[in-house]
Design goal:
This protein has 5 helices and 5 strands. By secondary structure, the protein is an alpha/beta fold. It has one domain: 3-Layer(aba) Sandwich (Rossmann fold), CATH 3.40.50.620. The protein has a 5-stranded parallel β-sheet, with helices on both faces. It starts with 7 loop residues before the first strand and ends in an 8-residue tail after the last strand.
């Protein structure tokens, strides 16, 4: 049996420390396999149009897109700092669950999805339910859950 060499790695970024750690580990996996990291920020467009204020809705989406661009640039800057530049940024719109588990893996021939998770105790593991849990169940490829390790600074 041959060992899997992950060439196309997808990781979702949202500005959280969990996502940042998953991204940094994705860079190391891609480096070892001469692969590529796709960093994706998914913008939910299900903000209801309140009393006909569709321009307000568009402003929110525009702000989210600007934030996503900044997150992607931070990832690319980190990549350069560790001498890895094979990073592609993706801004997707819609459901984070279906984008990360189905649409993006299919579109970019993803063979590994990496997701961050902070749940170390029973309650947090139960709460993993959202995006990470859906991706684990539905992705057409391998999924690696990166457990968030909080850095405790002791005086």
């Amino acid at each position: 049996m041959s060992e899997q060499a992950y060439q196309n790695i997808l990781v979702g970024i949202d500005g959280s420390e969990q996502a940042t750690q998953a991204f940094q580990k994705a860079v190391e996996v891609a480096r070892r396999n001469d692969g590529k990291v796709y960093v994706a920020n998914v913008i939910q467009q299900n903000v209801p149009v309140l009393m006909g204020y569709s321009s307000l809705n568009q402003n929110i989406v525009d702000q989210e897109a600007n934030t996503a661009k900044l997150l992607i640039e931070e990832c690319k800057k980190y990549g350069k700092s560790v001498d890895f530049t094979n990073i592609e940024g993706i801004i997707a719109y819609g459901s984070a669950k279906s984008a990360m588990a189905q649409q993006l893996p299919e579109k970019y021939a993803i063979d590994l999805v990496m997701v961050g998770q902070s749940g170390l105790n029973a309650v947090e593991r139960f709460m993993t339910g959202s995006v990470a849990s859906f991706v684990i169940r539905e992705a057409p490829c391998d999924v690696l859950v990166v457990t968030y390790e909080e850095k405790n600074e002791k005086a």
